[in-house]
Amino acid sequence: VINAGKSQHNEDQACCEVVFVERRPSPRGQLPSREGVGELDGVRAGVCVQVGTKGFYFHYWALFDGHAGSGAAVLSSKRLHLHICDQLRDLVDILQDPSPPPICLPHDARASTVEPSQVPLAEDDGEVPNDAVPRFHLEKVVSHESLVIGAIENAFKHMDDQIEQERASQHLSGGCCALAAVYLMGKFYVANAGDSRAIIIRNGEIIPMSREFTPETERQRLQFLAFLRPELLGKEFTHLEFPRRIHPKELGKKMLYRDQSMSGWAYKKIEEDDLKFPLIYGEGKKARVMATIGVTRGLGDHDLRVFSSNIRIKPFLSCFPEVRVYDLTQYEHCPDDVLVLGTDGLWDVTNDKEVADVVMEVLTSYEPNDPCRYTMVAQELVMRSRGVLKERGWRLPNDKLGSGDDISVFVVPL
Amino acid sequence: VINAGKSQHNEDQACCEVVFVERRPSPRGQLPSREGVGELDGVRAGVCVQVGTKGFYFHYWALFDGHAGSGAAVLSSKRLHLHICDQLRDLVDILQDPSPPPICLPHDARASTVEPSQVPLAEDDGEVPNDAVPRFHLEKVVSHESLVIGAIENAFKHMDDQIEQERASQHLSGGCCALAAVYLMGKFYVANAGDSRAIIIRNGEIIPMSREFTPETERQRLQFLAFLRPELLGKEFTHLEFPRRIHPKELGKKMLYRDQSMSGWAYKKIEEDDLKFPLIYGEGKKARVMATIGVTRGLGDHDLRVFSSNIRIKPFLSCFPEVRVYDLTQYEHCPDDVLVLGTDGLWDVTNDKEVADVVMEVLTSYEPNDPCRYTMVAQELVMRSRGVLKERGWRLPNDKLGSGDDISVFVVPL
After folding, report:
1. In chain A, what is the straight-line distance between the N-terminal and C-terminal CA atoms, in Å?
2. Total CB pairs under 8 A between chain A and B
3. Which candidate from B148, B252, B318 shows the least CB-CB separation from A261?
4. GO: which molecular function terms (chains A, B) (predicted)?
5. Which architecture, in CATH terms, is B2-25+53-101+143-213+319-413?
6. CA distances from residue A262 to A231, B154, B164, B318 in whole angstroms, order as listed
7. Closest to A322 measured CA to CA, from A160, A185, A189, A143
8. Contact B243 A107 (CB under 8 A)
9. Chain B: residue nearest A323 by CA?
10. Is the Cβ–Cβ distance between B258 and B251 less than 8 Å?
11. What is the pTM of this model?
């Protein structure tokens, strides 16, 4: 739902697809394939498959919670799964082969930028199979799972790059949090960059599948960056955290502070530099990076600047998600076990336990084989979090204020 | 125990003390107290207390696992608790007052470095009580617990500074991991910097009280630093991780890699720069930072350099501990519930479950009120991990090799 009082447009966007990952054609004897963000040839969602084409499917659900406009969220909802597909295309054979992934692949014939001085020696013409490469005494075994994680991580990066490149021509504004669930070869990969959240409810038990990335949870990473690159603070901010603003009159007194190395607090004598505005300021939903943004990961925001200043926020934001893996084959599941994805519009007013209760309550009122039952759960979760319009605004059943935000929920049966 | 085959000297050091924290005398009307590392006047361990002196006690156990010499470990074992005491001295009144700690303290009269331009205005002469300071709309509440955590964190920093300053005159070499448990006002604060470990065993349940800081667990922090400050790598290392060394012949091929933003792996085309040695290399106990050191937090190591090079390791090491808190008042404890602190000499060969089994086994063979029973557990843990000298070296009961390292264990009844 769009919260009516706030905006005409929904800044939450969503996508649900079955995507076929087609092995990238061998480059031998072909023209070099075009590369570059935005050109994702061979990547199609839900298309029919050529007979004999090698590849696999993944299932995909994603939520994009936009801010300062819906442009980044709209583009991401149309493209992120294609970037994931594109990253997986080189892995089609490797992921379907049960032996450990090769550490090194043969020469990429499309790679034409190798300088003459870098051309391998004659006896190694690029056709040598991987196991003919001399072994070193140490070699890490990399799992298939971690290749999928790496593919999703880099897909988020490419999505962010695409937003950067198209933002001028497409008039894209703002940024978005992104939460994506990929079901591939028996495993759920839940990738989160922002403050949306995912939980699994299995046999009544709540299993968190994400954590939120906010100025509070990422304080030390941001302070560390500001400490190493003070020029990013533009002489207006300090990397230290204080429990409140400091008044110039308080110079010379001792005040509680934290730096990038501390999780506890200590007193320091207030100096001139401490009067600057703190990089991280505020608590809970009100915490902000440089008084500007309340999430620290996501896509877009390339033009975001501190109000009436030229200081860029983007260097402090990360487009990389944390990816958690849930192996469906490791557990028995019943029809009431679900994965719930929600934007912060849900979680701000409905906690994990309440969500689990609604799931249980609604699912038991439908037959286990009724395909509507999961949709009804999602609808109920959204409606409860929005509340009912009364004279004093939108109210929850407990008479508290409903969510003031757009609300989006996926309920995925396991 | 000292592992006989390895060294004549024990690089493990330990300390166990009851420390009285005496409130620092008010500076009013006194000479400015001398400041500086190494001068810890008024800080005494286990001394008798003047009548009327205000303060409190803390109990303290710590293990220091030295490397490249025992100097840093010896000095730390003699001084770290005094630094903790020194940090706590300013907090004596605050920690004993149940109301939330003040955000800002009145002027420190000893602080004589305030410039005339910084002198507060006349109406604020430094005697204004904290609550007279104008309030801002946001003010974070800081807990007593987080002040103790901050005190311990800064004590580790001062200890590290002291090693740096005294290393030349005292001929101190090397560094050490530090694991310290502070019992204060009903809570255990377990501070860890390195690869020693602490667990609580309560009613047979294992509760981890630390995590290890190694090149593997801190890979992304180190890669992030190297990415932002490439000059620290001295042109000989790359911040990227590869699963093995790359042969120059492999230029242009694709190899698995991870950067500071990734937890998964992906393929990249090998470039000239990738032939440098990786910042983080090796697995498990063999993982190293710049091929040199296998722990990423601790005290000392100020002179540590990459072998036959001038590249310093210290910028990548952190002296700050992670502090975990266990509130003793929240649980009922029986005489068999203990906190176990051990250096990696213990944990490399004896896992948590085996330690818990030994605790149970030994404690049940003594009367619950026999004070020796905890010492006997510690002794048994050390002896089992060392093993028995046979023709083929020191062997564990399962005939595997015993620990090749010094082994130290504290068993603390809860």
Report:
1. 25
2. 205
3. B318
4. [pyruvate dehydrogenase (acetyl-transferring)]-phosphatase activity
5. 4-Layer Sandwich (3.60)
6. 22, 8, 21, 11
7. A189
8. no
9. B263
10. no
11. 0.88
CA distance B229 to chain A (A): 8
- As given in the structure block, the two tokens for residue B193 are 């910097």
Q: Identify whether the C-beta of residue A283 lies closer than 8 Å to the C-beta of residue A158.
A: no
A150 CB neighbours in chain B (<8 A) are: 258, 262, 264-266
**B133-167 residue pLDDT tens:** 444 457 889 999 999 999 999 999 999 999 999 99
The one-letter amino acid at B192: N
**CB-CB neighbors (< 8 A) of A246 in chain B:** 104
Distance CA B248, CA B236 (A): 15
Short-list B34, B105, B114, CA closest to A272: B114
Q: State pLDDT tens for residues A263-278.
A: 999 999 999 999 999 9
ipTM of the complex: 0.87
How many angstroms separate the CA atoms of B291 and B282, rounded?
A: 9
Q: Which of B141, B252, B264 sits opposite A111 (nearest CB)?
A: B252
Paired tokens of B149? 């955590």
Tell me the chain B residues in contact with residue A118 when contact means C-beta distances shorter than 8 Å.
251-252, 272
Q: How far is B372 from chain A (nearest CA, A)?
A: 36
Kindly determine whether residue B147 and residue A264, on different chains, have CB atoms separated by under 8 Å: yes
CA A198 centroid distance within chain? 11
B247 contacts in A (CB within 8 Å)?
Answer: 133-134
Please give the structure tokens belonging to residue B246: 């790359």
